[in-house]
Design goal:
This protein is of the alpha+beta class. Helix content is 60%, strand content 16%. Keywords: Membrane, Transmembrane, Transmembrane helix.
């Protein structure tokens, strides 16, 4: 099983396709996860001080 498939490859056993939609979606998910992690850290620091 291949993890990333190029657009011109003829195969069906892959997880992600190497195209613009996949790259935008991956960046969006990473940004959301980073913001969630920062929110948890910030709320933990805020609630511990008061």
């Amino acid at each position: 099983m291949k993890f990333v498939k190029d657009e011109d490859e003829e195969r069906r056993d892959y997880i992600f396709q190497n195209n613009t939609k996949t790259k935008v979606g991956t960046r969006f998910i990473i940004i959301v996860l980073v913001l969630l992690i920062l929110g948890v850290i910030a709320s933990g620091l805020y609630l511990e001080v008061f």
